[in-house]
Design brief:
The chain is 34% helix and 23% strand. It starts with a strand and ends in a 12-residue tail after the last helix.
Length: 148
């Protein structure tokens, strides 16, 4: 079996990151202006406790997955929470452990600073991803509401 490698994003990953993030946004039928791409890429490398961070997954040397995550304060804990904001694996590699490896990388990284709560959300129709999520995490039963 080929080994999945997960590592922090590097500046040299820009083209792969943009390709993967565009595919993720397309999956959710979303388009963002180039300005948002640019500011997001910049933020991923900005030092700061609450700045977003990212991992990229490779398989046979090819970038096949990514995740973005960020830390935020909580009124329920002294430690921050970790929100896994975006998670994507190329359709060609789904079911091969890329998503699970990216989730585990975020969990391990958060654990290094004492974070105990890593959470995320997905669309209810995302049945493929939900099979993985139901296997690696517990479903909380909370329902999201947006004002804007």
């Amino acid at each position: 079996m080929t080994e999945i490698t997960v590592r922090p994003l590097a500046q040299s990953d820009h083209a792969d990151w943009q390709r993967l993030w565009t595919a993720y946004l397309t999956f959710y039928e979303t388009k963002l202006p180039e300005d948002v791409y640019a500011v997001t890429w910049k933020r991923l490398f900005t030092v700061g406790e609450f700045e977003p961070k990212g991992f990229i997954a490779t398989l046979d040397g090819k970038a096949v997955g990514l995740t973005h995550y960020l830390y935020h304060r909580s009124c329920w804990s002294e430690k921050n929470n970790c929100y896994l904001q975006d998670l994507f694996a190329d359709p060609d590699v789904r079911g091969k452990g890329v998503g699970a490896a990216l989730i585990e990388a975020v969990k391990q990284e958060a654990g290094k600073i004492g974070v105990k709560n890593v959470y995320w959300m997905t669309h209810e129709t995302n049945t493929t991803a939900r099979k993985l999520y139901d296997h690696v995490a517990r479903r909380t039963g909370f329902i999201e509401y947006d004002l804007m």
